[in-house]
Design a protein that fits this description.
single chain, mainly alpha, Cytochrome Bc1 Complex, Chain D, domain 2, 2 domains, two-stranded antiparallel ribbon, 12 helices, 11 strands, 10% strand
Length: 287
């Protein structure tokens, strides 16, 4: 037991040294994110009132030149393969009602424009916030007579990416006046600052108090979520937001909550708000 405590102390000490004032610091690059030489993204914006930082900055600014270049070209962006798969799913008939997404919503470029910039929204039926994945499942069950997607299974990620991609370039803006959204924001804020796990870290430990610093080989960003689902090069696939939440919590050596649990839905509301004003980048590319 004593040895375990000593090892844990060493681990925490290593993390502490990574965050020390003597750590290597690199400011986010001063550059513009322009997709296909046509769509200029809002990648830096004045923080909304009540935000702890003066400016919100896209994670794109913290990545290597090679990674940043991939996102600027949709032909190079491997996440676009998921978007294309999502378009196919959008037009595929499933379920007992003989419907596809397009049966009700027609051309996604029109009907879904702005959706990715405004979710999560308040859902009166469940009396809680609902994200795009939840809305997809609700439509599948209630309107298509199809089974709900299990977390990160089937077409959930590509269809979510396709829907959010229709808002590419539009600024994120949540309506916290809907229903009880503000209370879920409060809950998410509490989760964001709560230290957890053997390493005693919170979301804020990395993304607020130490953004711009390096921990191991990773340049810590502000942790804004405007590009999810995001293509992560290290995993060679699209990664959903709740997958990333769970991965971060796991890295603190804590047990992570279930996807779409109340804890993570509150966190999604709060972290989405923290990126207010940034363009939807889905699918963003990160290391």
């Amino acid at each position: 037991m004593k040895k375990h405590v000593q090892q844990l102390g060493v681990a925490i000490g290593v993390i502490g040294l990574s965050f020390a004032s003597t750590s290597i610091v690199a400011e986010p690059v001063d550059d513009k994110l322009i997709i296909d030489d046509e769509i200029e993204m809002i990648s830096r914006a004045k923080a909304p009132e009540g935000h702890p930082l003066p400016e919100v900055i896209s994670g794109w600014h913290y990545r290597t030149p090679e990674t940043r270049a991939i996102e600027t070209d949709t032909f190079q962006n491997p996440g676009m393969l998921g978007v294309e798969q999502g378009e196919e799913i959008w037009n595929t008939v499933e379920g007992s009602e003989g419907k596809s997404c397009a049966s009700c919503h027609d051309d996604a470029a029109t009907s879904m424009k702005g959706v990715g910039a405004a979710y999560p929204k308040w859902d009166e039926d469940s009396s809680k916030p609902i994200n795009i994945e939840g809305r997809i499942n609700k439509c599948r069950v209630e309107n298509m007579g199809a089974e709900a997607y299990k977390f990160d299974k089937g077409g959930q990620k590509p269809l979510t990416a396709y829907i959010k991609h229709q808002s590419l370039g539009m600024p994120v803006e949540l309506d916290l006046s809907q229903g009880e959204m503000q209370s879920w924001w409060d809950q998410g804020k509490e989760t964001y600052y709560k230290r957890t796990g053997q390493l005693n870290l919170s979301c804020a430990s990395c993304h607020e108090q130490n953004n711009g610093k390096y921990i191991r080989a990773d340049h810590l960003s502000q942790g804004n979520v405007n590009g999810f689902p995001t293509y992560r090069l290290k995993q060679n696939k699209l990664i959903s937001l709740h997958n990333r939440f769970r991965g971060c919590i796991r890295d603190t050596r804590a047990e992570f909550p279930a996807a779409f649990s109340d804890t993570l839905m509150g966190l999604e509301v709060y972290t989405t708000w923290r990126g207010t004003g940034l363009s939807v980048e889905t699918p963003a590319v990160r290391q």
